[in-house]
Design a protein that fits this description.
- It is a single chain.
- By secondary structure, the chain is α+β, with helices and mostly antiparallel strands.
- Helix content is 35%, strand content 28%.
- The structure holds methionine sulfoxide.
């Protein structure tokens, strides 16, 4: 049986409007992982990442592919689980309270179309289990993107 967070996310990827689905998924993630200070999405647009639906404090809108944890997630096309963002060179501090971060790519047809990005105000908040859950969420979002022809 799938874990609670992935079951809940599956219920929201049935939505035909992509932006609405991502907005609710950002809320579901923040409710389930109670130690987060930020939960949301960055969307690939042209040659940068742009802020998508999120929960938390206002965040940076444009992230170049060669900057920050989000940029590295895009270029390496792999989850980035950062135990201490203060020792990550080039980390972009949207909220100065953030101390650890998990960023996971959403891949459709070999392209990173966006990312799930999560911040916590304590070091080493994110577990391997959470990384697996978010990788599953990213796969479910990628399938829904194709199935519903989401635009964002
Ligand atoms: N910390 C990210 C920027 C996005 S915020 O965390 C919401 C980074 O270094 O790319």
């Amino acid at each position: 049986m799938e874990n609670i967070i992935n079951q809940q996310i599956k219920a929201f990827v049935d939505e035909t409007d992509g932006i609405a689905a991502l907005a609710n998924i950002s809320a579901v993630i923040k409710e389930n992982y109670s130690g987060l200070n930020w939960s949301g999405f960055y969307i690939t647009r042209g040659n940068e990442l742009v802020l998508g639906p999120f929960q938390g404090k206002v965040a940076c809108v444009h992230i170049p592919f060669d900057k920050g944890v989000c940029g590295r997630c895009y270029t390496e096309r792999k989850a980035q689980r950062i135990d201490d963002v203060l020792s990550f060179p080039g980390h972009i501090a949207c909220d100065s309270a953030s101390r650890s971060e998990l960023c996971v790519p959403i891949i459709v047809n070999d392209q990173v179309i966006g990312e799930i990005d999560l911040d916590a105000p304590v070091p080493s908040y994110f577990t391997e289990e959470m990384e697996k859950e978010m990788l599953q969420a990213a796969r479910d979002i990628a399938s829904a993107y194709q199935q519903h022809a989401w635009k964002f």
